[in-house]
Amino acid sequence: MMGQKVIGRERESKLLREYVGSVRSELIVVYGRRRVGKTFLIREILGNQACFYMTGMENANMHDQLANFYFTLRRYYPSAIQPRSWIEAFDQLQSYLEKLPKGPKILWLDELPWLDTVRSKFIAALERFWNGWADGRGDIKLIVSGSATSWMMDNILCNRGGLHNRKTHQLYIAPFTLDETRRYFKAFGFGYREKEIAECYMVMGGVPYYYSLMNAHESVAQNIDRLFFARHGELHGEFDILYRSLFKKADDHINVISAIAKRNKGLTRKQLLAMTKLNNNHKFTRTLEELEQCGFIRSYIPFEETKRDVLFQLTDAFTLFHFHYSNANKYQDEKFWSNSLNSPRYRAWSGYAFEMLCLNHVTQLKMALGITGVQSRVCCWSSKEEKGHDGAQIDLLIDRADNTINICEMKFWRTEYIVSKADDDDFNNKMEAFIRQTGTKKSLMLTLVTSYGVKPGKYSGQVQQQVTLRDLMK
Prior knowledge:
This protein is elongated. 43% of the residues lie in helices and 16% in strands.
């Protein structure tokens, strides 16, 4: 993030302050995808309170990691000596901490997964340090953070050894919401309006670091061309770097996400196995779990289906953009984005990306509809084959406990949306097919989510509720 200020993150900031200010020892796990702002947030909240801070080195061996630890500790504790193992390293850290005055002692180990090199026994040493000394003292606040989410889940959050149930708090740092994206651009002098802000979110997925590479003196199109498609663009190749930084063996994850990206509503496990040719085993299950933990996909049960019909759907905008654009620029066009703004490719991508934006802002959508206090579930629905009837698909419906279902249609448009005769026929077909096939007795409420609202006209009367980008930015 540019500048010395935290944009948004009010909840995360409040919780982190509470955790480090408690009256007991704390093992605080902060995790989230690469470039989402974990380190920046922790640094801004802690200021100069940490009595020890170090960060692991990427692709370094145990010897170099221990040397890094030693040189870091020596700045705090000049009598430190070069450790030969992680047990010795943590023992020296303990000796240093015991010499400090009474009061809370904040330690921060950043990029923790990088420290756990092959045969280093790092986790065993960390377990010994925490369980055998730090936890019982009552004044140690140990913050561990890292981007390799699968490692963090396996070794810290879901550890079955000495750290099992030892973490006291976990804090997931998610990508920015649309509102945080808007506030970011406002804070740094960008003059973008709602549609352009949404477009940035739909390309970069709410990742603050990606926004920090943008130039306020350039249009959205100029920024995207420069970052993704210009020769040596700073985000050219980011997709592979992202997935390989998160997952130790990322080929299966990329294989799975590539398949899911081909189907808007998602794929079943059976369909995924057929498309990826992967084995139906625990490893495949774990791959799906890790993709969901990182926020790349979601699993959900379609309307009136059973658990065996669960679908896995892409929810990460940056990944979608990669497959629709970054991975499709076969002629190495440095203005690929600008040259396709009025193309079928742009319309297909923006329609799906806007649906994904709405799905990721269901809380704001419900707030705009005034139903935050009503129990509900969000899913999709597809019609079964019927003789004499057109097929129908509802990409987002909100099934409510108050005997009502919001049938949501999402339209990403430059201006107020004009409902056409074709739209009206499509809406009617979907509603009739839904009632006929599901037999629902609930009231159906046609809801249009658009950039700037619906323009009154001949066919707009059927729309019962409207939600705009401005509503989603609250």
